[in-house]
Each structure stands twice: as structure tokens, then as C-alpha cells.
């Protein structure tokens, strides 16, 4: 859950910035920034669950770009849907879907690398200190 929450903070910050720039309206930008990351945070949680089986976990560790790409598809869809539903504007929805997920996908890649490194360090500590486990 810590991993999901840490990504949610990154996601909210990016979503607000992009939505405010696109709409010029702090209230609408804030609403998009609250709804879009919430929906994507739920999607992120289930995405992590789907990638948690042994085969996909090994694939993600060896090729983190594949896991990132699968989340990008989810993210583009959510970004467009939320922005379009809240603004009624296909152009804003489309631009939001192109820009915001791209920034967050890059952030996701580095976020994933940090969490993988943390997991490896944790596993190394467990192996070096069997009594600590």
C-alpha cells in the first residue's frame, strides 16, 4: 500500500499541473486532479495485483518497460475519460490523455525502479541476517 500511496502523490501533482494549464480554471483543474488520480490509483492497485504472479513479476523485473507500457494504456484511457467527462471537451480530454499520462508514465518507470531496488535490498538483508526474519 505504501507503493500505491507514494505513486498517488506523484500522480496528483502532475495531474493538477497539467489540468490547470489546459483549463485555466483552478476549480476544474483541481477537480480533474482529484478524480483522475483517484481512478488511476485504483487502476494502479489492480495493475500491481495482476503483475504480482511469478511469471509476470519475473518479466517485469527483467523488462520493466513492458509493465510500464501496460500501465500506460490504462492511464491514457482513464485520463481521457475523466477529462472529457468533467469538461465535455474532446480536445481537452485528448490533450490531457496525451500529456499527463506521458509525464506520469516516465515517473512510473523511475518509481518502479526505486521500489524494485528497495525490494532487492530488503531481500539481501533477510538473507544476510536470518534471525531478523
Termini separation (Å)? 21 Å
Structural class: mainly alpha
Strand-residue fraction?
A: under 5%
Oligomer designation: single chain
Biggest sheet layout: none
- Rg from alpha-carbon coordinates: 17 Å
Average pLDDT value?
Answer: 86
In short:
The chain is an all-alpha fold and 133 residues long. It is built from 5 helices and no strands.
List the keywords.
133 residues; mainly alpha; 5 helices; elongated
Helix and strand arrangement:
Blueprint: H1 2-23, H2 26-50, H3 54-62, H4 64-87, H5 90-128
Describe this structure in words.
- Helix 3 packs across helix 4.
- The chain is an all-alpha fold.
- The chain is built from 5 helices and no strands.
- The chain is elongated.
- The model has no long low-confidence stretch (mean pLDDT 86).
Amino acid at each position: 500500500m505504501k507503493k500505491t500511496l507514494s505513486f498517488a502523490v506523484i500522480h496528483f501533482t502532475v495531474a493538477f499541473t497539467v489540468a490547470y494549464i489546459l483549463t485555466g480554471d483552478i476549480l476544474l483543474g483541481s477537480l480533474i486532479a482529484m478524480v483522475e488520480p483517484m481512478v488511476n490509483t485504483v487502476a494502479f492497485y489492480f495493475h500491481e495485483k495482476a503483475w504480482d504472479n511469478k511469471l509476470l513479476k519475473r518479466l517485469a523485473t527483467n523488462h520493466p518497460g513492458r509493465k510500464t507500457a501496460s500501465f500506460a494504456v490504462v492511464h491514457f484511457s482513464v485520463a481521457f475519460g475523466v477529462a472529457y467527462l468533467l469538461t465535455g471537451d474532446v480536445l481537452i480530454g485528448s490533450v490531457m490523455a496525451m500529456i499527463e499520462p506521458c509525464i506520469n508514465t516516465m515517473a512510473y518507470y523511475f518509481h518502479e525502479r526505486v521500489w524494485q531496488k528497495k525490494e532487492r535490498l530488503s531481500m539481501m538483508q533477510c538473507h544476510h541476517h536470518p534471525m531478523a526474519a
